[in-house]
Specification:
The protein has 483 residues and is an alpha/beta fold. The chain is built from 13 helices and 17 strands. The protein has two domains: 134 residues, NAD(P)-binding Rossmann-like Domain (Rossmann fold, 3-Layer(aba) Sandwich); 296 residues, Dihydrodipicolinate Reductase, domain 2 (2-Layer Sandwich). Keywords: Carbohydrate metabolism, Glucose metabolism, NADP, Oxidoreductase. Pathway: Carbohydrate degradation; pentose phosphate pathway; D-ribulose 5-phosphate from D-glucose 6-phosphate (oxidative stage): step 1/3.
Amino acid sequence: MIDPHACPTTTLLLFGATGDLAQRYLFPSLLRLHADGLLPAGLRIRGLALSAHDDAGFAQLLRQRLLEAAPDAQAAAAIEGLLARVQYRSVDLSDSAAVTAAVADVGGGTCLSYLSIPPALYPSTAQGLAQAGALAAPSRLMLEKPIGSDGASADALLEQIAGLIEEDRTYRVDHYLGKAAVQNLMALRFGNTLLEAVWNRNHIESVHILVAESGGVDGRSAYYAQAGALRDMVQSHILQLLALVAMEPPVSLQADRIRDEKVKVLRSLRPLDPKTAAPLTLRARYGAGRIDGQDVPGYVPPAGTDPETFAAVTAHIDNWRWAGVPFHLVTGKRLPCRSTQVVITLKPVSHWLFDKPSRGQAQPNRITLQLQPNENIQLGLLSSLAGPEWGALELQPLALELSVPAGQQRRIAYERLFLDALSGNSALFVRADEVRAAWAWTDSVLAAWQQAGLAMGSYPAGQWGPQRAAQFLPANLLEPSLP
């Protein structure tokens, strides 16, 4: 946790201030940090966007959204306290000179600039910031994903930003890295002999990483038509989770030591071969169906586009620790529920002693890391039903919950990321070589799909993807719901 009085940051420039991300997540996160006294005492916040508002008009808009996010009466004073820090400027972010003019008066202190805007506007906005001196050391720049749409475009964008600000002051956001459960994964792995001893190919049979959404493409159709599920979720969130699960122990918790190990994993991912694209991957698009008892329409993309809303890939990491262990990566929209989980399935015991169940029917040991909708860690073991009335020894599943104790406060992802960016801790942000390595593997999947002519499947909204999705999904999901 940072000391807000020692933090040198004096100005937060929040670009895209009227957008959905800023209004639903960023400003509410700032509100909670303000209420807890964790923002620097003199920090000023300037929202910038194209919408025509003055300070009072933007404050009224923001007040309403904050009241929706924190409706209790005690939050009213905190809301007014945060609004007292906030200014607003209307600016065309495609015009670097206009950006320079909008931030020219914030010099003389340390700026944290957060670009919650389309990546196409990153170069002009960053150029304007640089011309105004707002990127001069020790100021920092935060960038939302996506960084490019493929390796080539990502590399061009990385080079443009690198020409304006040094890498160690560039903070690329993947909000999954700010989740407490993700950080707890490192604590469990590297702080406990019990887990680290079995965290390898000798004891682990498979790893499943699932990011399921019950919502559809609604409101993001233009973006999604060009991106699809693989680019939108696998290339960023899921590969970051994979890297944390699979990385070697870092020599320290210093930011670059952690990121060095993540890059090694991403570079060890086996490129997808077009010959194995069909058995190792699945892409599909949802049709009409039912979610939570409500009829929902299918997704019809714009003419000339062919995006998938469901993507599944079995990946392999070609190194000593993980040789032969499949990593099943799955994401999809309009699935039965919203759930993000990492499921590590251990190999069966070498010699089975028990009468019931039979060896083939015994549930394997599993470590399940649940990220959303609730954060929880579960260890699945087997225990005995033996009693004096039993003539045989029977085992049953035993789930050990490792959830956070009731009443312990957990910061949501963007709160933690703001705190780290304000204090200059980059461990939970994505480095440029991570972006390049993730795109290199993702490009191999996209190329294999194209070269193999992989057909687009379909599934009704409310189901766990097409029938063949079962081979990629964690076994703890309700398989009867598969179409």
